Amino acid sequence: MTLSLFDQFLSPVVCWIPLVAIAITLPWILFPSPTTRWLNNRSLASQNWFLSQATSQIFLPINPPGHKWALLLSSLLIFLTTMNTAGLLPYTFTPTSQLSINMGLAGALWMGVVILGMRTQPTHSLGHLLPEGAPALLTPILVIIETISLFIRPIALGVRLTANLTAGHLLIQLTSTATLAMLTIMPVTAIFTGILLFLLALLEAAVALIQAYVFVLLLSLYLQENV
Amino acid sequence: MLSRLQAISVKVTDPFVSLSLVQASRSLQTSSQRLAPVPPLPDHGGKVRHGLIPEELFEFLYPKTGVTGPYMLGTGLIVYLLSKELYVINHETIYAICIGTIIVYGVKKYGATVAAFIDSINEEKVAKAQAAKDSHISFLTEAIENEKKEQWRVEGRGMLFDAKRNNVAMLLETNYRERQHMVTNEVKRRLDYQIALQHLNRRLQQEHMINWVEKNVISSITPQQEKESIAKCIADLKVLAKTTQAKAAA
Question: Which GO terms describe its molecular function (chain B) (predicted)?
């Protein structure tokens, strides 16, 4: 049976039972809630340390009113990191490779940030449409360009994540198919493709972590502008 | 599970009664169930062989199948899945081998370092608390020593007061003596004055008397007597001069 290359991105269904909900919620058990102990085991200690470091780093440049978003952005970071890295394992479905999930997250969060900015400090938010230090003649064109860039942000956020992960998974599938196909015919070429697959897997691991971080970082930047 | 059923079935609003019910059912279980102190975490996790398979499986199969039992089971299982094509070798298998190698390599190489780092996070926490406790203890010890020093100082204070008291007494004594001295001097001065006054009186009296006597004597001397006395004086003088010349010549 020949599989199309994009079959890995189909939402998994077993006997008409959609498994995507399990795919999204099951990684939750990897992060146990903090116990009543003072000193925890290694996994809890490392998770707590990582989360506190990442959150403090992300929220360092944001004003205190924006710190209300700490829980949301840190849980988003954990969600994206887990989804991406879990998708690296074989035979898994990566929910964040679906445009629906990424656009849902990006659109909703971006709009929340913009509306917050427009409601609490409209002058300051609208002032971002004209960067400082720009020559007066370019003002009309710059405002138009900045508005377009403002509205492209959610699309960019969502599509960036989707494209990166989809491309990575597709490449992995292609390379592994090539390796398997050539294993019997041209073993030496298969070995080279195998090496390529190794490097690609390493790259995908890095991309998984980086893309999640970039998503959250950009949202925190938009928050910084508007809060 | 039975304890939960019990807790749900008995609709009590009083938390103590429901809790005691749960605790009563727990007496059937073997482990000690208490809320505090929290039982300590075991030092090491469950033993695993080859990083995946828990040791309990090997121990379970050992009595019947010996040491090679679990390995035969594993091999047979894999061969069965492959031969019956229950597990199809496809491109994902190649990728699975690839990512499996990466994960195993990563864990073997960096596992110990990461574990040591995570342990250091916990140790830092403990060290901070310990440092706070130690600093507090040292602060209190210092305070105790300072207090003891103060008490010693207070003992010495008595000596200081004695010395001061002596000093003051000496000053008073000196002052008293000085005043006595002054008194004696003043009295002596007054008495000296009186004595000098008396001496003066007597001297004046004497002088007056001598003057009167002289005056009377001089007035009583007649010119005849004066001539006679002068002639006698001259005669005496001549005699004296002769005797002197004679002595000188001899």
Answer: proton-transporting ATP synthase activity, rotational mechanism
